């Protein structure tokens, strides 16, 4: 499309729309709008809104990511090192006593397990009051529960360990007491 300047006040279409045989004259502002529409320009206003919406989307994503991150635990893990006796209600309906001898390095737990029919090593973790211990035996047992006791120098000195345990037969409950 070729445009020629007719006068100081307007423009004319030399070769325009074939259905329009007449020469159009318009002000420069209206002509600029027509050219923008014909060339597919959406205008500065839409570009500005797109930029603003993009910035808001980035801010929203960063805020959501910051909220989803958990703050690190402020409380140190409970002290569970020592010997424990666990009085268990087994999945088959019987009761039994099981024994743990635990050593603790920060949040990592290692030690020894002795039960009525098997014995072997253990490993696990503690997060504040939540203790998980897994036996390294033929029939694996996983003990999960809460450790409670007095607070000494900001650290819980675990005296009781209560929760559930899982073995091949199902889920049982236990109440544990520190013996040493």
Helix segment count?
2
CATH class of the largest domain: Mainly Beta
Largest sheet: 8 strands, antiparallel, barrel
What is the CATH topology of the largest domain? Lipocalin
What's the gyration radius in Å? Answer: 38 Å
Would you list the SSEs in sequence order as H and E?
EEHHEEEEEEEEEE
- Structural class, from secondary structure content? alpha+beta
* Backbone shape: elongated
Low-pLDDT ranges? 5-14
Number of strands: 12
What is the beta-strand fraction? 35-45%
**Please, how many domains?**
2
Strand order of the largest sheet: 3-4-5-6-7-8-11-12
Structural overview:
- This protein is of the alpha+beta class and 180 residues long.
- The longest helix is centred in the first third of the chain and has 25 residues, at 44-68.
- The model is unreliable at 5-14 (pLDDT under 50).
- It has helices at residues 28-39, 44-68; strands spanning 3-5, 11-13, 82-89, 95-105, 108-114, 119-127, 130-136, 142-148, 151-152, 155-156, 160-167, 170-178.
- The termini are far apart.
- 21% of the residues lie in helices and 42% in strands.
- A hairpin with a 2-residue loop joins strand 6 (119-127) and strand 7 (130-136).
- The chain has two helices and twelve strands; from the N terminus they run E-E-H-H-E-E-E-E-E-E-E-E-E-E.
